[in-house]
Specification:
Elements: H1 20-26, E1 28-32, E2 43-48, E3 51-54, H2 58-63, H3 73-86, H4 90-105, H5 124-135, H6 140-144, H7 147-155, E4 165-166, E5 169-170, H8 180-188, H9 201-204, H10 215-232, H11 239-242, H12 248-258, H13 264-284, H14 296-300, H15 315-329, H16 339-344, H17 351-354
Antiparallel strand pairs: 1-2, 2-3, 4-5
Helix pairs in contact: 3-5, 4-7, 8-10, 8-15, 10-13, 10-15
Bound molecules: iron/sulfur cluster.
Iron/sulfur cluster (SF4) binds next to loops.
Length: 355
Protein backbone atom coordinates (compact mmCIF):
# COMPACT_ATOMS: atom_id res chain seq x y z
CA UNK A 1 0.00 0.00 0.00
CA UNK A 2 1.10 3.54 -0.74
CA UNK A 3 -0.87 6.17 1.17
CA UNK A 4 -2.62 8.13 -1.56
CA UNK A 5 -4.56 11.39 -1.25
CA UNK A 6 -4.54 11.31 2.53
CA UNK A 7 -4.92 7.53 2.63
CA UNK A 8 -8.27 7.58 0.85
CA UNK A 9 -6.68 4.76 -1.12
CA UNK A 10 -3.30 3.05 -1.29
CA UNK A 11 -2.74 2.76 -5.02
CA UNK A 12 -1.35 5.83 -6.74
CA UNK A 13 -1.84 6.13 -10.48
CA UNK A 14 1.19 8.45 -10.66
CA UNK A 15 3.55 6.04 -8.87
CA UNK A 16 5.76 5.48 -11.93
CA UNK A 17 6.79 9.11 -12.29
CA UNK A 18 7.74 9.41 -8.62
CA UNK A 19 9.49 6.03 -8.48
CA UNK A 20 13.15 5.41 -7.69
CA UNK A 21 13.65 4.27 -11.27
CA UNK A 22 12.28 7.55 -12.62
CA UNK A 23 14.54 9.61 -10.35
CA UNK A 24 17.57 7.51 -11.27
CA UNK A 25 17.02 7.84 -15.00
CA UNK A 26 15.97 11.47 -15.12
CA UNK A 27 17.05 13.49 -12.09
CA UNK A 28 20.05 11.77 -10.51
CA UNK A 29 23.08 13.99 -9.83
CA UNK A 30 25.34 11.98 -7.53
CA UNK A 31 25.50 9.72 -4.50
CA UNK A 32 26.07 11.12 -1.04
CA UNK A 33 26.34 9.80 2.50
CA UNK A 34 25.87 10.95 6.06
CA UNK A 35 29.04 12.22 7.70
CA UNK A 36 31.55 9.44 8.21
CA UNK A 37 29.20 6.61 7.25
CA UNK A 38 31.28 3.70 5.96
CA UNK A 39 28.38 2.27 4.01
CA UNK A 40 28.32 5.54 2.15
CA UNK A 41 26.12 6.23 -0.77
CA UNK A 42 22.61 5.32 0.29
CA UNK A 43 21.81 9.03 -0.01
CA UNK A 44 21.31 10.58 -3.41
CA UNK A 45 21.31 14.12 -4.75
CA UNK A 46 18.55 14.81 -7.24
CA UNK A 47 17.77 17.86 -9.33
CA UNK A 48 14.43 19.43 -10.09
CA UNK A 49 12.77 22.78 -10.75
CA UNK A 50 16.10 24.58 -10.93
CA UNK A 51 17.40 23.26 -7.62
CA UNK A 52 18.97 20.16 -6.08
CA UNK A 53 18.17 18.27 -2.90
CA UNK A 54 19.60 15.40 -0.91
CA UNK A 55 16.69 13.10 -1.49
CA UNK A 56 13.77 12.75 -1.63
CA UNK A 57 13.79 9.23 -0.26
CA UNK A 58 10.84 6.90 0.12
CA UNK A 59 9.02 8.64 2.98
CA UNK A 60 9.06 11.95 1.15
CA UNK A 61 7.91 10.40 -2.12
CA UNK A 62 4.92 9.20 -0.14
CA UNK A 63 4.23 12.22 2.06
CA UNK A 64 4.91 15.00 -0.45
CA UNK A 65 4.03 12.81 -3.44
CA UNK A 66 1.23 10.25 -3.40
CA UNK A 67 -0.28 11.49 -0.13
CA UNK A 68 -0.85 14.97 -1.59
CA UNK A 69 -1.56 13.57 -5.07
CA UNK A 70 1.65 14.91 -6.68
CA UNK A 71 3.04 12.85 -9.56
CA UNK A 72 5.65 15.40 -10.67
CA UNK A 73 9.03 14.24 -9.35
CA UNK A 74 10.58 17.70 -9.67
CA UNK A 75 8.02 19.32 -7.37
CA UNK A 76 8.92 16.74 -4.73
CA UNK A 77 12.62 17.61 -5.06
CA UNK A 78 11.83 21.25 -4.39
CA UNK A 79 9.44 20.46 -1.53
CA UNK A 80 12.05 18.16 0.00
CA UNK A 81 14.74 20.83 -0.26
CA UNK A 82 12.51 23.41 1.42
CA UNK A 83 11.69 21.08 4.31
CA UNK A 84 15.39 20.34 4.80
CA UNK A 85 16.15 24.04 4.69
CA UNK A 86 13.50 24.89 7.28
CA UNK A 87 14.13 21.83 9.45
CA UNK A 88 10.63 20.45 8.90
CA UNK A 89 9.86 16.73 8.94
CA UNK A 90 8.65 15.85 5.44
CA UNK A 91 6.24 13.18 6.71
CA UNK A 92 4.39 15.47 9.12
CA UNK A 93 4.44 18.29 6.58
CA UNK A 94 3.07 16.24 3.69
CA UNK A 95 0.42 14.43 5.71
CA UNK A 96 -0.74 17.73 7.26
CA UNK A 97 -1.09 19.29 3.80
CA UNK A 98 -2.90 16.16 2.60
CA UNK A 99 -5.31 16.43 5.53
CA UNK A 100 -6.08 20.06 4.67
CA UNK A 101 -6.50 19.11 1.01
CA UNK A 102 -9.13 16.57 1.97
CA UNK A 103 -10.89 19.12 4.19
CA UNK A 104 -10.86 21.49 1.20
CA UNK A 105 -12.11 18.79 -1.15
CA UNK A 106 -14.99 18.00 1.22
CA UNK A 107 -15.86 21.67 1.69
CA UNK A 108 -14.97 21.68 5.41
CA UNK A 109 -12.72 24.72 4.93
CA UNK A 110 -13.42 27.66 2.65
CA UNK A 111 -11.00 29.04 0.08
CA UNK A 112 -10.82 32.26 2.10
CA UNK A 113 -9.70 30.37 5.21
CA UNK A 114 -6.75 28.87 3.30
CA UNK A 115 -5.48 32.24 2.07
CA UNK A 116 -7.35 31.98 -1.24
CA UNK A 117 -5.12 29.09 -2.36
CA UNK A 118 -6.33 26.14 -4.38
CA UNK A 119 -5.79 23.23 -1.99
CA UNK A 120 -6.86 20.57 -4.49
CA UNK A 121 -4.90 17.32 -4.40
CA UNK A 122 -2.08 17.36 -6.92
CA UNK A 123 -1.44 21.11 -6.84
CA UNK A 124 2.36 21.34 -6.60
CA UNK A 125 2.48 25.13 -6.34
CA UNK A 126 0.19 24.99 -3.32
CA UNK A 127 2.41 22.40 -1.63
CA UNK A 128 5.50 24.57 -2.13
CA UNK A 129 3.74 27.68 -0.86
CA UNK A 130 2.22 25.82 2.08
CA UNK A 131 5.65 24.65 3.25
CA UNK A 132 7.00 28.21 3.19
CA UNK A 133 3.96 29.52 5.05
CA UNK A 134 4.27 26.76 7.65
CA UNK A 135 7.90 27.60 8.34
CA UNK A 136 6.91 31.19 9.11
CA UNK A 137 3.51 30.30 10.64
CA UNK A 138 2.04 32.73 8.19
CA UNK A 139 -1.67 32.61 7.29
CA UNK A 140 -2.77 29.02 6.70
CA UNK A 141 0.75 27.94 7.66
CA UNK A 142 -0.13 28.75 11.26
CA UNK A 143 -2.79 26.04 11.09
CA UNK A 144 -0.61 23.53 9.21
CA UNK A 145 2.18 23.93 11.75
CA UNK A 146 -0.13 22.42 14.38
CA UNK A 147 -0.17 19.00 12.69
CA UNK A 148 -3.20 16.88 11.90
CA UNK A 149 -4.36 16.14 15.44
CA UNK A 150 -4.77 19.75 16.48
CA UNK A 151 -5.89 20.80 12.99
CA UNK A 152 -8.77 18.32 13.24
CA UNK A 153 -9.68 19.67 16.69
CA UNK A 154 -9.83 23.18 15.23
CA UNK A 155 -11.66 22.31 12.00
CA UNK A 156 -14.02 19.71 13.55
CA UNK A 157 -16.96 18.57 11.36
CA UNK A 158 -15.86 14.93 11.54
CA UNK A 159 -12.40 15.64 10.14
CA UNK A 160 -10.76 13.73 13.02
CA UNK A 161 -11.79 10.54 11.20
CA UNK A 162 -9.24 11.20 8.50
CA UNK A 163 -6.53 12.91 10.58
CA UNK A 164 -3.76 10.41 9.92
CA UNK A 165 -1.71 10.43 13.11
CA UNK A 166 -1.01 8.25 16.12
CA UNK A 167 -0.53 10.07 19.42
CA UNK A 168 -0.36 13.26 17.36
CA UNK A 169 2.46 12.12 15.07
CA UNK A 170 1.63 11.66 11.38
CA UNK A 171 2.31 8.11 10.21
CA UNK A 172 5.05 7.15 7.77
CA UNK A 173 4.60 5.52 4.38
CA UNK A 174 4.33 1.91 5.56
CA UNK A 175 0.73 0.84 5.46
CA UNK A 176 -0.77 -0.20 8.80
CA UNK A 177 -3.67 -1.70 6.85
CA UNK A 178 -1.43 -3.95 4.75
CA UNK A 179 1.31 -4.63 7.33
CA UNK A 180 -0.07 -6.03 10.58
CA UNK A 181 3.22 -5.58 12.43
CA UNK A 182 3.09 -1.89 11.57
CA UNK A 183 -0.50 -1.55 12.75
CA UNK A 184 0.47 -2.66 16.26
CA UNK A 185 3.90 -1.05 15.84
CA UNK A 186 2.52 2.43 15.15
CA UNK A 187 -0.16 2.01 17.81
CA UNK A 188 2.29 1.15 20.58
CA UNK A 189 5.22 3.34 19.51
CA UNK A 190 6.43 5.60 22.28
CA UNK A 191 6.41 8.68 20.07
CA UNK A 192 3.34 7.80 18.00
CA UNK A 193 3.14 7.02 14.29
CA UNK A 194 6.84 6.46 13.79
CA UNK A 195 8.43 3.79 11.59
CA UNK A 196 11.59 4.04 13.69
CA UNK A 197 10.24 2.36 16.81
CA UNK A 198 8.79 -0.74 15.22
CA UNK A 199 10.24 -1.35 11.74
CA UNK A 200 8.40 -2.49 8.59
CA UNK A 201 11.35 -4.13 6.84
CA UNK A 202 10.96 -7.71 8.06
CA UNK A 203 7.28 -8.01 7.19
CA UNK A 204 7.89 -6.74 3.66
CA UNK A 205 9.81 -9.96 3.11
CA UNK A 206 6.98 -12.19 4.35
CA UNK A 207 4.49 -13.85 2.03
CA UNK A 208 1.87 -14.03 4.75
CA UNK A 209 0.78 -10.47 5.40
CA UNK A 210 -2.94 -11.02 5.96
CA UNK A 211 -2.85 -13.01 9.22
CA UNK A 212 -2.00 -11.80 12.71
CA UNK A 213 0.32 -14.72 13.36
CA UNK A 214 3.71 -13.56 14.63
CA UNK A 215 3.10 -9.89 13.80
CA UNK A 216 3.08 -8.57 17.38
CA UNK A 217 6.41 -10.31 17.94
CA UNK A 218 7.91 -8.51 14.94
CA UNK A 219 6.85 -5.21 16.51
CA UNK A 220 8.33 -6.13 19.91
CA UNK A 221 11.61 -7.46 18.51
CA UNK A 222 12.15 -4.67 16.02
CA UNK A 223 11.48 -1.97 18.62
CA UNK A 224 14.01 -3.60 20.95
CA UNK A 225 16.53 -3.35 18.11
CA UNK A 226 15.76 0.28 17.23
CA UNK A 227 16.01 1.22 20.90
CA UNK A 228 19.47 -0.30 21.13
CA UNK A 229 20.34 1.13 17.71
CA UNK A 230 19.42 4.63 18.88
CA UNK A 231 21.45 4.22 22.06
CA UNK A 232 24.48 3.06 20.10
CA UNK A 233 23.83 5.72 17.46
CA UNK A 234 23.58 3.20 14.64
CA UNK A 235 21.56 4.12 11.58
CA UNK A 236 18.46 1.93 11.30
CA UNK A 237 19.26 1.31 7.65
CA UNK A 238 22.09 -0.88 8.95
CA UNK A 239 19.40 -3.47 9.61
CA UNK A 240 20.01 -4.87 6.15
CA UNK A 241 23.65 -5.52 7.07
CA UNK A 242 23.51 -6.39 10.76
CA UNK A 243 20.07 -7.94 11.05
CA UNK A 244 16.51 -6.72 11.39
CA UNK A 245 16.38 -7.73 15.06
CA UNK A 246 19.06 -7.75 17.74
CA UNK A 247 21.64 -10.33 16.74
CA UNK A 248 25.10 -11.64 17.51
CA UNK A 249 26.39 -8.95 15.14
CA UNK A 250 25.23 -6.24 17.54
CA UNK A 251 26.59 -8.16 20.52
CA UNK A 252 30.00 -8.51 18.85
CA UNK A 253 30.11 -4.82 18.03
CA UNK A 254 29.19 -3.74 21.56
CA UNK A 255 31.74 -6.08 23.09
CA UNK A 256 34.51 -5.06 20.70
CA UNK A 257 33.97 -1.38 21.45
CA UNK A 258 33.26 -1.57 25.19
CA UNK A 259 34.77 -4.83 26.39
CA UNK A 260 31.55 -5.45 28.36
CA UNK A 261 31.44 -9.14 27.48
CA UNK A 262 27.63 -9.23 27.37
CA UNK A 263 25.54 -11.78 25.50
CA UNK A 264 22.43 -11.49 23.32
CA UNK A 265 19.89 -12.00 26.15
CA UNK A 266 21.57 -9.23 28.15
CA UNK A 267 21.64 -6.83 25.18
CA UNK A 268 17.95 -7.59 24.57
CA UNK A 269 17.22 -6.93 28.25
CA UNK A 270 18.91 -3.54 27.95
CA UNK A 271 16.71 -2.71 24.94
CA UNK A 272 13.64 -3.81 26.88
CA UNK A 273 14.66 -1.75 29.88
CA UNK A 274 15.02 1.42 27.82
CA UNK A 275 11.72 0.80 26.06
CA UNK A 276 9.97 0.27 29.39
CA UNK A 277 11.36 3.53 30.74
CA UNK A 278 9.99 5.30 27.65
CA UNK A 279 6.65 3.59 28.20
CA UNK A 280 6.64 4.53 31.87
CA UNK A 281 7.27 8.15 30.94
CA UNK A 282 4.20 8.15 28.68
CA UNK A 283 2.05 6.41 31.30
CA UNK A 284 3.10 8.87 33.97
CA UNK A 285 2.07 11.69 31.63
CA UNK A 286 -1.42 10.21 31.23
CA UNK A 287 -1.18 7.83 28.26
CA UNK A 288 -2.80 4.40 28.43
CA UNK A 289 -4.16 1.61 26.24
CA UNK A 290 -6.75 3.96 24.77
CA UNK A 291 -3.91 5.92 23.14
CA UNK A 292 -2.44 2.78 21.55
CA UNK A 293 -4.70 3.13 18.59
CA UNK A 294 -4.77 4.01 14.89
CA UNK A 295 -6.51 6.68 12.83
CA UNK A 296 -10.24 6.03 12.37
CA UNK A 297 -9.86 5.73 8.59
CA UNK A 298 -7.17 3.06 8.89
CA UNK A 299 -9.37 0.97 11.20
CA UNK A 300 -12.68 1.47 9.44
CA UNK A 301 -12.06 1.91 5.71
CA UNK A 302 -10.44 -0.94 3.77
CA UNK A 303 -7.92 -0.36 0.99
CA UNK A 304 -10.01 0.14 -2.14
CA UNK A 305 -7.74 -1.01 -4.95
CA UNK A 306 -4.51 -2.83 -5.82
CA UNK A 307 -2.76 -5.90 -4.49
CA UNK A 308 -3.74 -5.14 -0.89
CA UNK A 309 -7.36 -4.43 -1.76
CA UNK A 310 -9.65 -5.13 1.20
CA UNK A 311 -6.87 -4.95 3.81
CA UNK A 312 -7.89 -3.05 6.92
CA UNK A 313 -6.69 -2.73 10.52
CA UNK A 314 -10.06 -3.54 12.10
CA UNK A 315 -10.49 -2.35 15.71
CA UNK A 316 -11.05 -5.88 17.02
CA UNK A 317 -7.93 -7.03 15.16
CA UNK A 318 -5.87 -4.27 16.74
CA UNK A 319 -7.20 -5.22 20.19
CA UNK A 320 -5.98 -8.79 19.65
CA UNK A 321 -2.58 -7.58 18.52
CA UNK A 322 -2.35 -5.27 21.54
CA UNK A 323 -3.15 -8.17 23.89
CA UNK A 324 -0.41 -10.24 22.30
CA UNK A 325 2.06 -7.35 22.30
CA UNK A 326 1.39 -6.44 25.95
CA UNK A 327 1.75 -10.05 27.03
CA UNK A 328 5.12 -10.38 25.31
CA UNK A 329 6.26 -7.13 26.87
CA UNK A 330 5.05 -8.09 30.35
CA UNK A 331 2.56 -5.24 30.41
CA UNK A 332 -0.88 -5.25 31.99
CA UNK A 333 -4.11 -5.14 29.98
CA UNK A 334 -4.31 -1.39 30.59
CA UNK A 335 -0.90 -0.92 28.99
CA UNK A 336 1.14 -0.30 32.14
CA UNK A 337 4.35 -2.28 32.54
CA UNK A 338 3.61 -4.77 35.33
CA UNK A 339 5.37 -4.38 38.67
CA UNK A 340 6.98 -7.78 38.14
CA UNK A 341 8.37 -6.72 34.77
CA UNK A 342 9.76 -3.51 36.18
CA UNK A 343 11.42 -5.42 39.02
CA UNK A 344 12.83 -7.98 36.59
CA UNK A 345 14.42 -5.15 34.60
CA UNK A 346 15.85 -3.45 37.68
CA UNK A 347 13.37 -0.58 37.43
CA UNK A 348 11.80 -0.83 40.90
CA UNK A 349 12.41 2.87 41.42
CA UNK A 350 9.78 3.89 38.85
CA UNK A 351 6.98 1.65 40.13
CA UNK A 352 5.64 4.42 42.35
CA UNK A 353 5.25 6.70 39.33
CA UNK A 354 2.88 4.22 37.69
CA UNK A 355 0.90 2.72 40.58
S1 LIG B 1 23.42 3.99 5.94
FE1 LIG B 1 22.45 5.48 7.31
S2 LIG B 1 24.16 6.74 8.13
FE2 LIG B 1 24.91 5.67 6.26
S3 LIG B 1 24.57 7.12 4.57
FE3 LIG B 1 22.76 5.77 4.70
S4 LIG B 1 21.30 6.89 6.02
FE4 LIG B 1 23.32 7.82 6.32
Amino acid sequence: GLGTRNWQDETFEGAETISGEYYKENLFVRHTACYYCRLGGCGKIFKGRGTVSEGPEYETLYSLGSCVGIDDAEYIVEADRLCDLYGIDTISMGVSIAFLMECYEKGLVSKDSVDGMDFSFGNGDTVIEAIKKTAYREGVGDLLAEGTKRMAQKIGKGSEKFAINVKGLEIAGHSPRALKSMSVGYATATRGGSHHDSRPTYEYGLKDKRTLEGKAKIAVDSSNWTTIGDSLIICHLMEKVMGMFLSENHVAMVNLVTGFGIDLPELTRIGERIYNVERAFNIREGFSRKDDTLPWRIMNEPIKTGGSKGAQAKPEELEKLLDQYYEMRGWQKDGRPSKEKLKELGLEHIIDDLY
